[in-house]
């Protein structure tokens, strides 16, 4: 049976990423973050490999002389090094929590929550930066219109995967809740239809009113 396509990090990530070099002066770092309205920027070396990340809060704490409230700077030596920082390389946090383009969006969302971060740089097998995925990217992907959801259920789930005639099952979607009414040829298809619909991005719940022929 054909599988339902699940969108991945690669589908929703931003590929044009504002990046810094280790040698980028802090004044320029602050200006880039502000001009692009972003909360953090990856630091890459001359080959494009990800080596660290600098956040707006890092810059702010540096400028105000405030210590890291969560103690994430590590040793006192590391904290003093950041306090004296004049470049992105000296202020950046490393190693960096990253994502892969082939990750499912739920996996990326769990990683964002577990790491308590708002975005994850996306790297390839060689550690080269290929994009960045943010919480808002994932939210935008999950919060889909009812029309989009209905179209995917009808065209992908019912017609393409299950091969059901469009007159067999009527689909209604309201606020992400899918209501199915109609009949399917076999009883075992009922949980299959429900399960596939639950796997569609943006579906909050499935309310199935389906009759089935005898096995």
Commentary on this structure:
The two termini are 19 Å apart. The chain has helices spanning 9-12, 26-35, 56-64, 76-83, 88-91, 105-115, 135-142, 146-161, 189-198, and strands at 40-44, 50-55, 119-123, 129-134, 169-174, 177-184, 205-212. The strands form 3 sheets. A 3-stranded mixed beta sheet has the order 5-6-7, with helices on one face. The protein has a two-stranded antiparallel sheet with strand order 1-2. A two-stranded antiparallel ribbon has the order 3-4. With 215 residues, the protein is an alpha+beta fold. The model has no long low-confidence stretch (mean pLDDT 87). It folds into 2 domains: 9-142, CBS-domain; 146-212, 2-Layer Sandwich (Histidine-containing Protein, Chain: A). Strand 3 and strand 4 (129-134) form a beta hairpin. 24% of the residues are buried. Residues 61-82 are annotated as: Disordered.
Number of helices: 9
In angstroms, what is the radius of gyration?
Answer: 23 Å
Order of strands across the main sheet:
5-6-7
Strand percentage:
15-25%
Give the terminus-to-terminus CA distance.
19 Å
- Name the CATH superfamily classification of the largest domain: CBS-domain
- Average pLDDT reading: 87
Shape: elongated
Total discrete domains: 2
Q: Biggest β-sheet: count, sense, barrel?
A: 3 strands, mixed
CATH architecture of the largest domain: Roll
CATH top level of the largest domain?
Answer: Alpha Beta
Along the chain, the helix and strand elements come as: HHEEHHHHEEHHEEHE
